[in-house]
């Protein structure tokens, strides 16, 4: 997906911004979707960093003889891995960039809808602000090593003050 292409849900974001689209959810859901989108974007950037690092590994460091001119298959293999890391339109880095932009659009869509509710409903706005005040200041990173399919891990909230 290039910068000039229309983003997948751009029309929904425009509709939400202009008040033609609504989505009824609890304030908590809006806050948690926004928080989780941020966490997911951080995880995507970390994976992109690793993909770029793979693309920059020197041929001699692979340990399969890619720096030896006689071993052309080793050179080919290393070149393919490096290009797949970052260096082609369908590299891991490029595909993750598409995913990042989609998550960003989902986040923007929910922010626009949430803001319309906040502007129109003081009780809703108060509930959103109360939840935001209780969230930890630093995002808890997504750690794939600790995740278990089908088992949720709720975010720890700071205790409510007096």
Automatic annotation (TrEMBL):
Region (Disordered) location: 141-162
Protein name as catalogued: PE family protein
Source taxonomy: Bacteria, Bacillati, Actinomycetota, Actinomycetes, Mycobacteriales
């Amino acid at each position: 997906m290039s910068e000039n292409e229309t983003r997948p849900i751009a029309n929904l974001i425009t509709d939400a911004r202009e008040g033609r689209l609504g989505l009824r959810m609890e304030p908590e859901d809006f806050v948690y979707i926004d928080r989780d989108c941020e966490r997911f974007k951080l995880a995507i950037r970390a994976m992109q960093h690793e993909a770029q690092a793979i693309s920059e590994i020197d041929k001699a460091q692979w340990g399969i003889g890619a720096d030896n001119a006689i071993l052309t298959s080793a050179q080919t293999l290393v070149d393919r891995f490096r290009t797949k890391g970052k260096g082609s339109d369908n590299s891991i880095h490029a595909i993750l960039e598409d995913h990042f932009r989609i998550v960003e659009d989902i986040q923007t869509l929910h922010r626009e809808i949430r803001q319309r509710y906040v502007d129109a409903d003081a009780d809703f706005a108060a509930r959103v602000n109360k939840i935001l005040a209780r969230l930890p200041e630093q995002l808890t990173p997504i750690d794939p090593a600790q995740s278990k399919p089908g088992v949720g891990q709720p975010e720890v909230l700071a205790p409510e003050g007096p």
